[in-house]
Design brief:
The chain is mainly beta. The protein is built from 2 helices and 18 strands. The protein has one domain. The longest helix is centred in the N-terminal third of the chain and has 22 residues. The radius of gyration is 22 Å and the shape is flat.
């Protein structure tokens, strides 16, 4: 529990720490720091409630930070997204509802008014172990299981601060699974362990998967109307070493609606499709679905997550 509290505290306070550090040094107009941090809390308490229901407690934290540099023909864009959420309902144990670490960095040299020769780096992972509830004893993910590192060389089209389109024909996507049990099971696309006829493991599962392919990254940051901001990020990756029609998709949207200086409503949606990730289909009660022959239904699936939060927010520019 102490580790969980520490994670939430880091996310909630990260932006304020960065602002204070920046204010302590002489201002440099070539650097621009923006972002928001949000801490949201929900509680339901019931006592002799005739209509029924369950008590619940939920806490979510979010940080979206941007540090950008622009001087002469050089441009350097950095974006860090952190999120963590917990929920306790009825007599259940505390469960994780959100968990994300996502750092994106692009360094470019200007080719003309709107195009930049650009190097891109992206890292994705999570803070804490994940479980396929109601099974809370078997890990299905944790920090660096998976972890994604993407290195890319290409061209970035930046007509304004509100939009950019990065296109690369040369990209390396590295998937890491540092939990050996998950690696042995071939989770997240790595090569699974090998076993003999007696079921004894003869070779460990691989802890990494390296793919080379083409990559597209689209970024949108616009004020839809007064006090309403939309940030959208779409990533597409096609591996040269596999069927090019198997396109990995990552699409995230953050809609921030300001009530006043310190209170906002945030809606975050994330859509993911990765052909290397096999997902077990389950029923509403958590039991696995099976086909007509009784085999589990497993395969690549479109993943979707939506988070609606209302709470305290610090927004700085």
């Amino acid at each position: 529990m102490k580790k969980i509290i520490a994670i939430i505290a880091v996310i909630a306070c990260f932006g304020i720490t960065e602002v204070n550090a920046q204010d302590a040094t002489p201002k440099d107009t070539s650097w621009k720091f923006t972002g928001l941090t949000s801490l949201n809390f929900t509680q339901v308490y019931l006592n002799n409630w005739a209509a029924g229901g369950e008590q619940s407690l939920a806490l979510t934290s979010l940080a979206n930070l941007n540090l950008n540099y622009k001087k002469g023909n050089k441009s350097w864009t950095n974006q860090l997204d952190l999120a963590y959420g917990l929920m306790q309902q009825g007599g259940d144990e505390v469960r994780k509802t959100d968990d994300r670490i996502d750092f994106l960095s692009k360094y470019g040299i200007q080719a003309n008014d709107k195009w930049y020769y650009t190097f891109l780096f992206n890292f994705k992972s999570q803070f804490a172990p994940g479980y396929n509830y109601p099974d809370d004893s078997t890990k299905i993910s944790e920090f660096m299981a998976p972890g994604y590192v993407l290195l890319s060389l290409g061209a970035d089209y930046k007509p304004s601060d509100k939009f950019s389109a990065f296109v690369s024909p040369l990209t390396s996507k590295m998937t890491f699974v540092l939990n050996q049990d998950l690696a042995d099971a071939g989770a997240f696309g790595v090569e699974a362990a090998k076993f003999n006829a007696e079921g004894v493991k003869t070779k460990d599962g691989e802890n990494s998967l390296i793919e080379v392919g083409a990559y597209v990254n689209l970024l949108v940051n616009v004020d839809v109307m007064e006090n309403v901001n939309l940030k959208s990020r779409l990533e597409l990756f096609s591996s040269y070493t596999e069927d090019p029609t198997h396109i990995d998709v990552f699409w995230e949207n953050i809609l921030a609606m300001r009530v006043n200086k310190y209170i906002t409503c945030n809606i975050t949606t994330t859509l993911i499709y990765d052909h290397d990730i096999d997902i077990q289909e389950t029923k509403k009660n958590g039991e696995p679905k099976t086909d007509d022959e009784g085999n589990p239904i497993i395969g690549p699936r479109t993943q979707f997550k939506e988070v609606l939060s209302l709470g305290l927010t610090y927004n700085f520019n």
